[in-house]
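User: Before I run my own analysis I want an independent prediction to cross-check against. Here's the chain; please return only the C-alpha coordinates and, at the end, one sentence I can use as a sanity check.
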Amino acid sequence: MRFDVITIFPEFFRGPLDHGVLSRAIASEIVSVVVHDLRSFAHDRHRTVDDRPFGGGEGMVLKPEPLVEAVESLGLAPKDAREQNRQRVVLLSAQGRPFNQALAQDLAALDRLIFICGRYEGVDDRVNQLVVDSEISIGDYILSGGELAAGVIIDSVARLLPGVLGNEDSSRYESFGGRAEQDVSVPHSTHDAGGLLDYPHYTRPAEFRGLQVPAVLSCGDHAQIRAWRRREALKKTLTNRPDLLEGAQLSKEDAKILEQLRHAKSGEIM
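Assistant: C-alpha coordinates:
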Protein backbone atom coordinates (compact mmCIF):
# COMPACT_ATOMS: atom_id res chain seq x y z
CA MET A 1 0.00 0.00 0.00
CA ARG A 2 1.23 3.48 -0.82
CA PHE A 3 0.61 6.59 1.26
CA ASP A 4 1.28 10.07 -0.18
CA VAL A 5 1.39 13.08 2.14
CA ILE A 6 1.15 16.66 0.88
CA THR A 7 2.44 19.11 3.50
CA ILE A 8 4.31 22.36 3.99
CA PHE A 9 6.47 20.61 6.61
CA PRO A 10 7.95 17.50 4.95
CA GLU A 11 10.65 17.28 7.64
CA PHE A 12 7.93 16.49 10.18
CA PHE A 13 7.69 12.89 8.99
CA ARG A 14 11.37 11.96 9.34
CA GLY A 15 10.96 10.81 12.94
CA PRO A 16 7.58 9.01 12.92
CA LEU A 17 8.50 6.93 9.87
CA ASP A 18 11.82 5.76 11.27
CA HIS A 19 10.71 3.70 14.26
CA GLY A 20 8.71 0.66 15.26
CA VAL A 21 6.13 -1.28 13.26
CA LEU A 22 5.82 1.35 10.55
CA SER A 23 9.54 1.51 9.83
CA ARG A 24 9.65 -2.30 9.52
CA ALA A 25 6.67 -2.26 7.16
CA ILE A 26 8.45 0.29 4.97
CA ALA A 27 11.72 -1.66 5.06
CA SER A 28 9.92 -4.85 4.02
CA GLU A 29 8.13 -2.93 1.21
CA ILE A 30 4.65 -3.81 2.46
CA VAL A 31 4.09 -0.06 2.82
CA SER A 32 5.58 2.97 1.12
CA VAL A 33 5.19 6.54 2.36
CA VAL A 34 6.06 9.40 0.02
CA VAL A 35 6.07 12.96 1.39
CA HIS A 36 5.55 15.89 -0.99
CA ASP A 37 6.52 19.49 -0.20
CA LEU A 38 3.53 21.68 -1.06
CA ARG A 39 5.80 24.66 -1.64
CA SER A 40 7.32 22.85 -4.62
CA PHE A 41 4.05 23.51 -6.41
CA ALA A 42 4.03 27.26 -5.72
CA HIS A 43 5.58 29.19 -8.61
CA ASP A 44 6.21 32.67 -7.22
CA ARG A 45 9.61 33.55 -5.82
CA HIS A 46 8.33 33.39 -2.22
CA ARG A 47 6.76 29.94 -2.77
CA THR A 48 3.46 31.26 -1.40
CA VAL A 49 0.85 28.64 -0.49
CA ASP A 50 -1.61 30.72 1.55
CA ASP A 51 -3.54 34.00 1.29
CA ARG A 52 -6.13 36.08 3.12
CA PRO A 53 -9.73 34.76 3.10
CA PHE A 54 -12.38 36.38 0.94
CA GLY A 55 -15.01 38.06 3.10
CA GLY A 56 -12.52 38.95 5.79
CA GLY A 57 -11.70 37.17 9.00
CA GLU A 58 -8.67 36.09 10.95
CA GLY A 59 -5.88 33.89 9.72
CA MET A 60 -4.84 32.63 6.31
CA VAL A 61 -6.22 30.00 3.95
CA LEU A 62 -4.27 27.48 1.86
CA LYS A 63 -4.54 28.43 -1.82
CA PRO A 64 -6.15 26.08 -4.35
CA GLU A 65 -3.53 26.25 -7.13
CA PRO A 66 -0.59 24.50 -5.41
CA LEU A 67 -2.77 21.91 -3.69
CA VAL A 68 -4.67 20.91 -6.83
CA GLU A 69 -1.43 20.82 -8.83
CA ALA A 70 0.22 18.66 -6.16
CA VAL A 71 -2.62 16.12 -6.25
CA GLU A 72 -2.75 16.08 -10.04
CA SER A 73 1.00 15.46 -10.21
CA LEU A 74 0.51 12.08 -8.53
CA GLY A 75 -1.04 10.40 -11.57
CA LEU A 76 -4.26 9.34 -9.91
CA ALA A 77 -7.39 8.11 -11.60
CA PRO A 78 -10.11 10.74 -12.23
CA LYS A 79 -12.11 11.57 -9.13
CA ASP A 80 -15.17 9.60 -10.25
CA ALA A 81 -13.06 6.50 -10.97
CA ARG A 82 -10.90 6.36 -7.82
CA GLU A 83 -13.12 3.97 -5.89
CA GLN A 84 -12.80 1.25 -8.52
CA ASN A 85 -9.05 1.95 -8.67
CA ARG A 86 -8.77 1.61 -4.88
CA GLN A 87 -7.49 5.16 -4.43
CA ARG A 88 -8.65 7.99 -2.18
CA VAL A 89 -7.66 11.60 -1.60
CA VAL A 90 -8.29 12.69 2.00
CA LEU A 91 -8.28 16.22 3.39
CA LEU A 92 -7.37 16.20 7.08
CA SER A 93 -9.49 18.82 8.82
CA ALA A 94 -11.53 19.46 11.94
CA GLN A 95 -14.68 19.41 9.80
CA GLY A 96 -14.11 15.83 8.63
CA ARG A 97 -15.72 12.48 9.36
CA PRO A 98 -14.49 11.14 12.72
CA PHE A 99 -11.72 8.58 12.36
CA ASN A 100 -12.30 5.23 14.05
CA GLN A 101 -11.31 1.58 13.69
CA ALA A 102 -14.07 0.83 11.19
CA LEU A 103 -12.82 3.63 8.95
CA ALA A 104 -9.23 2.38 9.37
CA GLN A 105 -10.35 -1.04 8.11
CA ASP A 106 -12.10 0.60 5.18
CA LEU A 107 -8.95 2.53 4.25
CA ALA A 108 -6.78 -0.57 4.62
CA ALA A 109 -8.63 -2.10 1.66
CA LEU A 110 -7.21 0.58 -0.65
CA ASP A 111 -4.03 0.45 -2.71
CA ARG A 112 -3.22 4.14 -2.42
CA LEU A 113 -4.16 6.85 0.05
CA ILE A 114 -3.27 10.53 -0.41
CA PHE A 115 -3.39 12.97 2.51
CA ILE A 116 -3.66 16.73 2.23
CA CYS A 117 -2.47 18.25 5.50
CA GLY A 118 -4.55 21.30 6.28
CA ARG A 119 -2.97 24.35 7.93
CA TYR A 120 -3.85 27.84 9.13
CA GLU A 121 -7.59 28.60 9.06
CA GLY A 122 -8.29 25.92 6.49
CA VAL A 123 -8.16 25.06 2.80
CA ASP A 124 -9.84 26.80 -0.14
CA ASP A 125 -13.03 24.77 -0.65
CA ARG A 126 -12.43 24.45 -4.37
CA VAL A 127 -9.75 21.92 -3.46
CA ASN A 128 -12.52 19.81 -1.94
CA GLN A 129 -14.67 20.17 -5.01
CA LEU A 130 -11.92 19.40 -7.52
CA VAL A 131 -9.70 16.69 -6.02
CA VAL A 132 -10.76 15.56 -2.52
CA ASP A 133 -12.79 12.38 -1.99
CA SER A 134 -13.40 12.72 1.75
CA GLU A 135 -12.51 14.76 4.83
CA ILE A 136 -11.32 13.05 8.01
CA SER A 137 -10.84 14.33 11.56
CA ILE A 138 -9.03 12.36 14.27
CA GLY A 139 -11.00 13.99 17.09
CA ASP A 140 -13.10 16.84 18.37
CA TYR A 141 -10.20 19.17 19.05
CA ILE A 142 -8.02 21.54 17.03
CA LEU A 143 -4.45 20.82 15.90
CA SER A 144 -2.06 23.27 14.28
CA GLY A 145 -2.08 21.16 11.12
CA GLY A 146 -2.91 17.82 9.57
CA GLU A 147 0.56 16.30 9.87
CA LEU A 148 -0.04 14.66 13.24
CA ALA A 149 -3.39 13.36 11.98
CA ALA A 150 -1.73 11.89 8.88
CA GLY A 151 0.80 10.08 11.06
CA VAL A 152 -1.93 8.67 13.28
CA ILE A 153 -3.99 7.37 10.35
CA ILE A 154 -0.99 5.91 8.49
CA ASP A 155 0.06 3.98 11.61
CA SER A 156 -3.48 2.78 12.33
CA VAL A 157 -4.13 1.66 8.75
CA ALA A 158 -0.70 0.14 8.06
CA ARG A 159 -0.87 -2.21 11.03
CA LEU A 160 -4.02 -3.78 9.54
CA LEU A 161 -2.19 -4.85 6.39
CA PRO A 162 -1.13 -8.51 6.11
CA GLY A 163 2.46 -9.05 7.20
CA VAL A 164 2.91 -5.76 9.06
CA LEU A 165 2.42 -7.15 12.58
CA GLY A 166 4.42 -10.11 13.83
CA ASN A 167 1.19 -11.75 14.95
CA GLU A 168 -1.77 -10.82 12.77
CA ASP A 169 -4.21 -11.75 15.57
CA SER A 170 -2.88 -8.67 17.41
CA SER A 171 -5.09 -6.42 15.29
CA ARG A 172 -8.08 -8.78 15.44
CA TYR A 173 -8.53 -9.07 19.19
CA GLU A 174 -7.61 -5.61 20.49
CA SER A 175 -9.84 -2.67 21.43
CA PHE A 176 -12.37 -1.77 18.72
CA GLY A 177 -11.46 -4.98 16.85
CA GLY A 178 -14.09 -6.47 14.61
CA ARG A 179 -15.64 -9.89 14.72
CA ALA A 180 -13.04 -12.64 14.57
CA GLU A 181 -13.38 -16.31 13.65
CA GLN A 182 -13.55 -18.50 16.72
CA ASP A 183 -10.54 -20.65 17.56
CA VAL A 184 -10.94 -22.44 20.90
CA SER A 185 -7.41 -23.86 20.78
CA VAL A 186 -5.99 -20.62 22.16
CA PRO A 187 -7.35 -18.33 24.89
CA HIS A 188 -8.34 -15.36 22.74
CA SER A 189 -10.31 -12.60 24.39
CA THR A 190 -13.86 -12.88 23.09
CA HIS A 191 -13.95 -14.07 19.45
CA ASP A 192 -16.89 -11.71 18.84
CA ALA A 193 -15.32 -8.53 20.22
CA GLY A 194 -17.61 -6.36 18.13
CA GLY A 195 -15.96 -3.07 19.03
CA LEU A 196 -15.57 -3.45 22.80
CA LEU A 197 -12.49 -2.16 24.58
CA ASP A 198 -9.71 -4.65 25.20
CA TYR A 199 -9.49 -6.69 28.40
CA PRO A 200 -6.70 -6.03 30.98
CA HIS A 201 -3.30 -7.59 30.25
CA TYR A 202 -0.74 -9.01 32.70
CA THR A 203 2.78 -10.39 32.43
CA ARG A 204 5.56 -11.51 34.80
CA PRO A 205 6.18 -11.15 37.69
CA ALA A 206 3.04 -12.77 39.09
CA GLU A 207 3.19 -10.41 42.09
CA PHE A 208 4.26 -6.78 41.98
CA ARG A 209 4.07 -4.40 44.96
CA GLY A 210 1.40 -6.48 46.58
CA LEU A 211 -0.74 -6.82 43.45
CA GLN A 212 -1.29 -10.33 42.13
CA VAL A 213 -2.07 -11.41 38.58
CA PRO A 214 -5.66 -12.76 38.56
CA ALA A 215 -5.48 -16.48 39.34
CA VAL A 216 -7.76 -17.44 36.45
CA LEU A 217 -5.05 -16.45 33.96
CA SER A 218 -2.78 -19.18 35.32
CA CYS A 219 -5.38 -21.91 35.61
CA GLY A 220 -4.79 -23.37 32.14
CA ASP A 221 -8.53 -23.57 31.40
CA HIS A 222 -9.03 -21.64 28.16
CA ALA A 223 -12.81 -21.51 28.56
CA GLN A 224 -12.49 -19.87 31.98
CA ILE A 225 -9.89 -17.45 30.64
CA ARG A 226 -12.13 -16.44 27.72
CA ALA A 227 -15.07 -15.92 30.08
CA TRP A 228 -12.96 -13.78 32.43
CA ARG A 229 -11.58 -11.70 29.56
CA ARG A 230 -15.05 -11.17 28.12
CA ARG A 231 -16.38 -9.97 31.46
CA GLU A 232 -13.40 -7.65 31.96
CA ALA A 233 -13.78 -6.23 28.44
CA LEU A 234 -17.43 -5.50 29.13
CA LYS A 235 -16.53 -3.95 32.50
CA LYS A 236 -13.84 -1.69 31.01
CA THR A 237 -16.15 -0.62 28.19
CA LEU A 238 -18.98 0.14 30.60
CA THR A 239 -16.60 2.20 32.76
CA ASN A 240 -14.60 4.09 30.11
CA ARG A 241 -16.68 4.07 26.93
CA PRO A 242 -20.34 3.17 27.64
CA ASP A 243 -21.29 4.75 24.30
CA LEU A 244 -19.66 1.81 22.51
CA LEU A 245 -22.16 -0.63 24.01
CA GLU A 246 -24.98 0.78 21.89
CA GLY A 247 -23.48 -0.61 18.69
CA ALA A 248 -21.63 -3.60 20.13
CA GLN A 249 -22.36 -7.22 19.19
CA LEU A 250 -23.70 -8.54 22.49
CA SER A 251 -24.98 -11.99 23.38
CA LYS A 252 -27.65 -12.80 25.98
CA GLU A 253 -24.84 -13.75 28.34
CA ASP A 254 -23.20 -10.36 27.70
CA ALA A 255 -26.46 -8.60 28.55
CA LYS A 256 -26.68 -10.56 31.79
CA ILE A 257 -23.10 -9.65 32.72
CA LEU A 258 -23.73 -5.98 31.95
CA GLU A 259 -26.83 -6.01 34.14
CA GLN A 260 -24.75 -7.44 37.01
CA LEU A 261 -22.00 -4.87 36.44
CA ARG A 262 -24.46 -1.97 36.37
CA HIS A 263 -26.14 -3.23 39.52
CA ALA A 264 -22.77 -3.50 41.28
CA LYS A 265 -21.82 -0.02 40.07
CA SER A 266 -25.05 1.54 41.30
CA GLY A 267 -24.57 -0.22 44.63
CA GLU A 268 -21.13 1.31 44.98
CA ILE A 269 -22.55 4.77 44.29
CA MET A 270 -25.26 4.27 46.92
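Sanity check: The beta strands are 2-7, 32-37, 50-51, 61-62, 87-98, 112-117, 134-137, 207-208, 211-212.
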